[in-house]
Structures
1.
Amino acid sequence: MVEISTSILTVQKGREAEVFFALEKAKTDYFHIDVMDGKFVEKDTYKDMIEYSSYIKRISNLPLDIHLMVEDVETGIEVFSAVEPNIITFHLEACKNKEEVMKNIQLIKEKGARVGISIKPQTNIEEIHEFLPYIHMCLIMTVEPGKGGQTLITDMLAKISTLKEYIDKHNIEIDIEVDGGINLKTAPRVKKAGANILVAGTAILIASDYKTIIDELKEE
């Protein structure tokens, strides 16, 4: 079953309540929270995402899918654990070594959340293999992180397929989430490659009917 994690990165100020309620009614599976620090990526959304995720926590029971695009992963985990997210994902590239990766995995688990690790388009999928048994999700970026509304890099489809083959071969239970350029045109190829959670922001938020597009994105 394919799930949809709606990125709220481009939600207009002043329309938060209306949009969040509409997304819940449309049956998005997660609210995707894009946390950026202005260092790991150019944009800085830290303050807005603390505000948005805290607000969602007050009005909705839907799970929060926190994506940390930050240099200081440990602080990000501490800050966003306060909203009791379902999952916290950090970037492999933000860690100096294997020990730091394992420390972050452990910290997220101690906070009671599931663990995700994300990799940028330039990172080889093999670099994440050793961590797969310890985490719940691998997030493959199909655009360079940091901006909404980008076009999916089609070379990344092979990366998704390679990961899917590896986890099937080694009998590892893990979700494959894909983020970047997901819309009705690209979703079928991403799902066929092996992804089971799709992050979509712009494609959903510009639609006149959230439920119709979410249903279409979920179609097997």
Note: The domain at 3-218 is CATH 3.20.20.70 (TIM Barrel).
2.
Amino acid sequence: MRFSATSYDFTEYVRNDNYINGEWVDAPGRERIDVINPRYGKAMSTVPMCGYEEVDAAVKAAEAAQPAWANQPIRERAYVFYKLRELMHRDVEELTWLVSHENGKTYGESKAEVLKAIECVEYGCSLPNLAAGTQLDVSRGVNCQVVYEAVGVVAGVTPFNFPIMVPLWMIPQALVGGNAFILKPSEQVPLSMIRLAELFAEAGLPNGIFNIVNGGREVVEALCDHPGIDAFAFVGSTRVAKLVYGRAATSGKRALALGGAKNHLIVVPDADLEVTADNVVASFTGCCGQRCMAASVLVAVGDVDHIIDEVAKRAAKLVPGEHIGAINMDASVDRIRGYVDRAEAGGAKVLVDGRGASGDDGYWFGPTILDGIDADNPARVEEIFGPVLSIVRVANLEEAIALENSSDYGNASAVYTTSGDVARKVMNEVSAGMCGVNIGVPVPREPFGFGGWNDSKFGAGNITGWDGFRFFTRPRKITTKWAVQSDQTWMS
């Protein structure tokens, strides 16, 4: 079921069904909703809204397939990801256009996502070397060893903003670890997973090891509740992350849920003008601001008007549809506009106004910069998830750090400076799990793990990297003794 688009021209795709035990399965009697191309505001496919029955069928298929998969040597499980990497490179253009059409990103942003997804696959290829375990002779004739084993059937729920990358944050670690995986992609962007399922089959993954159940809240709750699912991972809003983390943990699962963000970029007077202006604009407008690592607040320390003027100048030149993609849905445009309207009515100065943006026939909002935002303004406190940058002015670095740390969130924080001392102070004192110096989107790349602090994450560890592998496996400690010793220890 290849996707035929090679440009932004509207292109329909096949209807989406569930993928269970290696087959596409209809969901008769279930409501189907449209999958909208945000650039045009027009349906390019449909997706079924399923529930517990379909989740149960996927669990049964996964339970039947998982033991044989787990019994394969880890290098054989990883070999599937070597092959998947080759196939994704082969089809990189097709995958890029599919992400662009279902999500609304520009071609460049979509290709960057696909290439980052391939990096995640490459990390899966490396796991046999990383997961070698350890062993040690802890006493005379006594050896202790640690091996990592699958937990069983695991599940993941992923958001609309990265249709192919975020699922691949989870899947390599889970499958190379020996588990079977059930995915519920966002009902807004389920189409990239059609191709991923087909590529997995082409790469030789056995039936039942990767399954897809489509839907909304009912499927998420079923994944949290089902007794056959042993681990549950989630990426989405903080409100939902907190709820599903509690629900999954209460049902006895290990759970990890990533939530939202309100990322602060601290700009001090000695910041490099070119580096800062270019980077801040890229941070708050990239992916139309619809990413949990996007800049939301610029904390202006002292006199940095020359930098703010340059940021505004560059942001104003971005053309919707060419340099900046579409918003995911019409309701999101209204929500974003509401924050800007209320901030302006409260006295904020609109330096760059994206409320009149238009591209094709779909959902658009241009780069917007609000100056003079109070610390308690909703535009500073709440996650907007759009290309809106709120500027809060403070007198010194201590006030800037205090403002950052007053946020309920703790995903990312950055500082723009040419001073190592300033950078060290901010990196040591801000309350955020992912931090950047002169980098406005400080996403840790493999093998480093992705995960914030505070209300940006619920559960222990990170969702990618080695922490992700540890989350989807459990360590077995084996202590052995073969020789008969002439003396005794407490282990005799």
Note: The chain has two domains: 18-259+456-477, 263-437.
3.
Amino acid sequence: MKTFRLLPLVAVIGATLAFPLRAQSLVDLYESARGFDASYQSAKSQYDATLARAAQAKALVLPTANLALGASRSTEQYIPGTGPQADFSYGTENATVSASQPLYRPANWAGYRQGLKQVDLAQAQLDAADQDLIIRVSQGYFDVLAAQDSLTFVQAQKAAVAEQLASAKRNFEVGTSTITDTREAQARFDLVIAQEIAAENDLRVKKIALDQLVGKSEAQPQALAQPVALPDLLPNDANIWVQQSEGDHPSIKQAQIALEVAQLETSKAEAGHKPTLDLVASYNAINNLDGSSTPGSSDSRVNVGTIGLSFNLPLFAGFYTQNRIKETLALEDKARNDLEGAKRAVAQGTRTAFFGVLSGQSQVKALEAAEASSQSALDANKLGYQVGVRINIDVLNSQSQLFDTKAKLAKARYDVLVGGLKLRQANGTLRAEDLQSVNALLAR
């Protein structure tokens, strides 16, 4: 009876193990990579550190307070010319509380504003890291799909060549074809076997790379839904994409912030010629504890409180300030040139990515036409071989051309989808939400 009771449980376990792993969408794997990828986590930690460092600059304009405590004891001996020896022993305890509030310190305020700029810089750097992660996940995702397609097409070609090889052997046995047909089919079959081995290894490597990126074991991307309908590129104007980059691209933002920080650094240098004014206050308590042997001695306590203004006017610093200003002005020009260089690089990269997507879309259309033509050519060669007007090698070549075209077409479609994301990265508008449009093209 116990054996029969275990049978349903065994059946459930067997069904669970036999059930294929659920395929993950591009968004699913991106979310997984966000919490696992070491490069992105490093950028996130750098972002947090930059925020903390920026907050430190606020201390430059806030008051400071200090507490100081001290204690000492002294012993003195007095030996007069005549009379008894006199000993003096006393202790001192003191406590001081001091505070200072900057009232006019131009350099401190410039440093505080630099700290605020660091927050914007940290956000731009994190945005760039996020965009890079989106592209790496998308590229790895479609690399696996392309490798799977290549293996599928090679296996389909192997089956077709095996069928053609069997046909050639039968025809040779009945005397309707020469041994040449058989040897050609055998050579092509051996070649396809080698291609299958290479395709299997390529798929294995691509899967390992994707698993390493997203932190999952045996990640399984969802394939594109059939029939594939690639979205149009909108707006279909490279100038519009370039204009969008001017205010959104992380590299341009970082260069712009670097220029503003350099300008504030010049303000700090110029502050070397300006006076400073601070509000200062202190309270000092001193206890004198007399332990001498002298009659009439006693303890005493003195409390002193002060409040006032501290004014400082620089007069001469060995030409340090003048040369510091020259340095910061040169660095300001460098930052301005870097900003212009970043704008030009982004514009060029955006145009290159834009025309790359257009070219990819044209290649997809051309390969779709080539696929239909290759299929027609294969059908015609098969028919011609059957009636004796075509030889076996013609059929084999047509099969190779068809499956090669199918593989190139699948790869071209993936390249267009990834190229669209790279275009948004190139002009700085790529966001995680952009993956949803690609996700909509996947099979459910």
Note: The beta strands are 64-78, 86-104, 276-290, 300-312.
4.
Amino acid sequence: MRGVQIGLIGFGTVGSGVVKVLEENGSLIEKRLGQPLILKRIADLDLDTDRGVSVDHVQLTRNALEVIEDPEISIVIELIGGYEPARSFILNCFRQKKHVVTANKALLAIHGDEIFREARRHGVDINFEASVGGGIPIVRSLREGLVANRITSLFGILNGTSNYILTKMTDGGGEFGQVLQEAQEKGFAEADPSMDIDGIDPAHKLAILLSLACGGRVRFDRIYTEGLSKISPLDIQYSLEFGYKVKLLAIAKIEASQVEARVHPTLVPIEHPLSAVNGVDNAIFVTGDVVGPTMFYGQGAGQMPTASAVVSDVVELARNVLFHSAGRVSTLSHQDRYIKAIGIKDIERVVTRWYMRFSVVDKPGVLSRISGILGKNRISIAAVIQKGRQAREAVPVVMMTHEARGRDVIRALKAIDQLPVVLDETVRIRVEDKLS
């Protein structure tokens, strides 16, 4: 039969978007590929819900094995998410000599080493553009567009839910809990938003990007992850006074021996392009030693942007099928013999500037006691904001420090928070001034 036949496992939001793209842009894709893409089978447990797309020409099944074991299907799209049975389905596809496209960031972050190794062993390819940044072509850019570069740093806004919440809080939208509820009501946040607001989702994506940038294996549990729940409108307002915006940033700084890999709220200079990325949009700021700083920006999630990335992967694999060229581009941008384990620096050894907000009793001598403890721990103060006396007992004292090691900051704040004049746990946020 003329064309490249594909199968789809998972007919949810993104899966129905893939069908829509193939319906509406099928003739355009055929002109670019030289052959049509033929969606032969779709597997999903729910075959009754109307997805708003025509599947009259497609064989529907509740049994994923009918897709995986169909000898005419060359490429399988996995869009069910989660660890199992997605992992087993993908490995079974490899055994059937089928190429795979997935958007499953969590699976690749945790089990990517096994999956990539098995794909190579069976002589097939796996593409995963949609796993990071939705419709932003960052995976292909790291594997091919920036192949002449040694990547020195990555800074990413990789979660639309968190970015929406911080944007609304910055624009005066209210406290964290209030804005989160609004995001849930508008469909920008899940009923259980913990993967997003606790930083797990962007950490999954950072693990994938770091693997591509370094050509190596990343232990996900070594990526430091911190969420948004302690950020208040007060911190956002003080950050603006210092000339910064608060963003949940995924950060990788790549050195010869070790790599910094961390996800946490970060103060970003207002003049930096990342500070202007608002709402549910994503952006990845990548610096290469040859090309210099580059930024990739767009819709990081949603049905059609993600479907766009999935279909682009299918087209790339279809070219490999037509020209019998599996393995033409290395999965992790490096040839197998150069793939290595990536050592990640302990977060307590990472050096940054810091924003600190102390909630203290309004009385003389408080600032000197705090600065004394900071000084004993090799932390110097760059700027202070201390508002005038107020009627309430607790008042904020806000500081911006010079660069300090994480271990020293943790030790100092532990001592400061035990002072009788300090009434609440100190808020601390890392600052990134050098983003290239």
Note: The chain has a mean pLDDT of 94.
